Amino acid sequence: MGDPKFQRKTYSTPRHPWEKTRIDEERIILSKYGLKNKRELWKAQSLLDSYRTQARFLQAQLRTGNQVSVAQFQMMIRKLNRYKILGENATLDDVLSLSLESILERRFQNLVYRKHLASTQKQARQLITHGHILLNGRRVSIPGLMVEATVEDSISYDPRSVLVDEDHPLRRVIAGETGPSEEEASAEPEGEVEEKEEAKGAESKDE
Asked: How far apart are CA 183 and CA 52, in angstroms?
């Protein structure tokens, strides 16, 4: 395990840091999922690489009928199924075909946004870090937490948060009620009606 005071990095940086194609792709993903920096992206990439490495290793071992490898394969599939990344009947080819977005979709921040508890990914991150969101009945302030499928439906506003009130301005923004209603938009303000009546009266006098 090592000394807990000296934590190891949970990600690896790219071998070639100045590749324009990769930088442009990373910029798109950062914007799409509201990531704070590329470190969060690289952590997800490292997690994906670990699954792929294990799948490639098990592919060779399963051909020999190794029972230990069969058990390891079943454990990996159960774990991926627990996080709703793959189905119960997934194969090693399915693991190898996983994309980076398959991992990012299961982040707590993304699920808060997908459940329409926030209007943007960055707003979802802000609500989480400020303690407005509950997960499985507990306040969680880690946007990058991987959420299991069994507790996904428990994501909600904290009852102690001001956002519980549906009339809160932020809730109205999330619900898309920022603009005026159709009746309000079609109705003319009182000042404009009076001005039009005065203009008509002036025209009649001139005639």
From this structure: 56
What does pTM read for this prediction? 0.79
pLDDT (tens digit, 9 = 90+) per residue, 135-184? Answer: 999 999 999 999 999 999 999 999 999 999 999 999 999 888 644 444 44
For range 54-75, the mean pLDDT: 91
Structure tokens at 150: 């069994």
Which tokens is 149 given? 């499928």
Q: Are 174 and 116 in contact (CB under 8 A)?
A: yes
Give CA–CA dist 155/149, Å, rounded.
11
Are the C-beta atoms of 86 and 94 separated by less than 8 Å? Answer: yes
**Greatest alpha-carbon span in the chain:** 103
Report pLDDT digits (tens) over 100-143.
Answer: 999 999 999 999 999 999 999 999 999 999 999 999 999 999 99
Q: Residues of 13-24 as b/e, b for ≥16 C-beta within 10 angstroms?
A: eeeeeeeeeeee
Separation in Å, CA 114 to CA 2, 105, 110, 118, 119: 38, 9, 6, 8, 9
Kindly state the helix (H) or strand (E) to which residue 109 belongs, with its residue range: helix 108-114
- List, edge to edge, every strand of the sheet that includes 138-139: 138-139, 133-135, 156-157
Q: How is residue 68 written in tokens?
A: 């230990």
Query: In this structure, how many other beta carbons lie within 10 angstroms of the beta carbon of residue 32?
Result: 12
